[in-house]
Design goal:
Layout (H helix, E strand, L loop, with lengths): L12 E9 L5 H17 L5 E5 L16 E7 L2 H8 L2 H10 L3 E10 L4
Antiparallel strand pairs: 1-3, 1-4, 2-3
Helix pairs in contact: 1-3
Length: 115
């Protein structure tokens, strides 16, 4: 058996955001949400990596929740970059343009464990 060694560093900071749209079947709402999100992805200076996705059609299990409409993940170099993002104009514009489309947002933040 091969032993796998995993080392963590002092970063990055992972910002995971789940969105539930008010009208998830509405194509215009989905298009508006995606347009606002993609604009932020193109223009935001803090993120070093982005992922925008929808629920995967994976095996149904008790531990899998695919009730969300969209998942967005940003990777930041550190906590300070994530803090700057929270008040960045690109983030504020995204909220202004898209917040009327969602009914719920859930955020999970994680930073690499160093010990």
């Amino acid at each position: 058996m091969t032993k796998i060694s995993i080392e963590n560093t002092t970063g990055p900071f992972i910002h995971s955001v789940y969105f539930w749209l008010k009208n998830p079947e509405n194509k215009d709402d989905r298009a508006a949400f995606e347009q606002a999100m993609k604009k932020m992805i193109r223009t935001n200076p803090q993120a070093i990596s982005n992922h925008l996705g929808c629920p995967a059609v994976s095996e149904k299990r008790d531990v899998v929740d695919n009730s969300f409409s969209y998942f967005y993940m940003m990777v930041f170099s550190d906590l300070e970059a994530q803090n700057a993002y929270q008040t960045d104009p690109t983030h504020m514009l995204f909220i202004e343009e898209a917040s009327h489309l969602w009914e719920r947002v859930l955020v999970y933040d994680s930073i690499s464990k160093t010990d």
